């Protein structure tokens, strides 16, 4: 089974179609895609979730991290998606912890709302997410997701997405009870895109049910997005 995660930067690189083309080339069974717009002015009022779903010919689910602002359109949404070769059932949407204030010198967007999408597909529970960009918020979000993963522990589980920090950071420590699917290639450098990437911030984390067969970072020197996609090939060894 092939698992993939990809922050597509709402198609600002070379368009959402080009991002979908890259994904199709690697033929994932499950893929989490972050930074997906729906009906927003900045991306031409199109439904990027539906476009991706159609282009990839996969089942899917979407979570809206936040709506608006009004200047982006009355129905504007920003969030992320989970796609699978098998039907996807949305189990729960988690609004991730956040501060209600900015620290001195922080940009206003630092405390924008974030969400985690909890789904089940083909007997696997998947938590797809996009964490904050700052460590104190990431730590609280990691603690929150950790609690939910431990609570819903009856199925093989994958936690994946853009964590905006290294798996080995203090901020993500609450999630280190899970297996790092990219461990064999660490540091798995995904940001910024291309061969000059410096940060390992995108991850695929696994419950003990999985055996990792291989892992890779897809080096995007074309600028399709500002992130390199990641892949983890696995098999389920226990249920």
Structure description:
The chain has helices at residues 16-26, 48-56, 135-151; strands spanning 2-7, 30-38, 59-67, 77-84, 88-95, 115-121, 124-130, 157-162, 179-180, 202-206, 210-217, 230-236. It has a six-stranded mixed beta sheet, with helices on one face. The chain has a six-stranded mixed beta sheet with strand order 5-6-7-8-10-9, with no helix packed on it. With 239 residues, it is an alpha+beta fold. Helix 1 packs parallel to helix 2. It has one domain (2-236): Deoxyribonuclease I, Chain A (4-Layer Sandwich), CATH 3.60.10. The protein has three helices and twelve strands; from the N terminus they run E-H-E-H-E-E-E-E-E-H-E-E-E-E-E. The radius of gyration is 17 Å and the shape is globular. The longest helix is centred in the middle third of the chain and has 17 residues, at 135-151. The mean pLDDT is 97. Helix 1 links the parallel strand 1 (2-7) and strand 2.
Structure characteristics:
239 residues; alpha+beta; Deoxyribonuclease I, Chain A; 6-stranded mixed sheet; 34% strand; globular
Looking at the overall shape, the CATH architecture is: 4-Layer Sandwich
Counting helices, strands and paired strands, the structural category is alpha+beta
- Overall geometry comes to globular
State the share of residues found in helices, binned by percent.
10-25%
Instruction: Tell me the span between the first and last alpha carbons.
Output: 15 Å
Q: Strands of the largest sheet, in order across it?
A: 3-4-2-1-12-11
- Which stretches of 5+ consecutive residues score pLDDT under 50? none
Note the total helix count.
Answer: 3
What is the CATH level 1 assignment? Alpha Beta
CATH superfamily: Endonuclease/exonuclease/phosphatase
Q: Let me know the largest β-sheet.
A: 6 strands, mixed
């Amino acid at each position: 089974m092939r698992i993939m995660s990809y922050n597509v930067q709402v198609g600002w690189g070379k368009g959402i179609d080009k991002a979908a083309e890259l994904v199709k080339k690697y033929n994932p069974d499950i893929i989490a895609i972050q930074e997906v717009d729906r009906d927003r002015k900045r991306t031409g009022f199109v439904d990027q979730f539906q476009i991706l779903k159609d282009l990839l010919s996969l089942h899917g689910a979407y979570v809206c991290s936040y709506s608006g602002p009004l200047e982006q359109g009355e129905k504007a949404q920003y969030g992320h998606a989970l796609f699978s070769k098998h039907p996807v059932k949305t189990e729960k949407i988690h609004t991730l912890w956040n501060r209600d204030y900015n620290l001195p010198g922080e940009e206003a967007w630092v405390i924008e709302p974030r969400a985690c999408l909890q789904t089940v597909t083909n007997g696997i529970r998947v938590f797809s997410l996009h964490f904050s960009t700052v460590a104190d918020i990431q730590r609280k979000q990691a603690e929150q997701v950790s609690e939910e993963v431990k609570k819903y522990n009856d199925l093989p589980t994958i936690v994946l997405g853009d964590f905006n920090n290294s798996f080995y950071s203090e901020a993500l420590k609450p999630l280190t009870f899970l297996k790092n699917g990219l461990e064999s290639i660490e540091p798995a450098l995904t940001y910024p895109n291309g061969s000059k990437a410096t940060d390992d911030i995108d991850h695929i984390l696994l419950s003990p049910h999985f055996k990792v067969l291989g892992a890779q970072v897809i080096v995007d020197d074309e600028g399709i997005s500002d992130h390199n996609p990641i892949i983890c090939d696995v098999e389920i060894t226990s249920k």
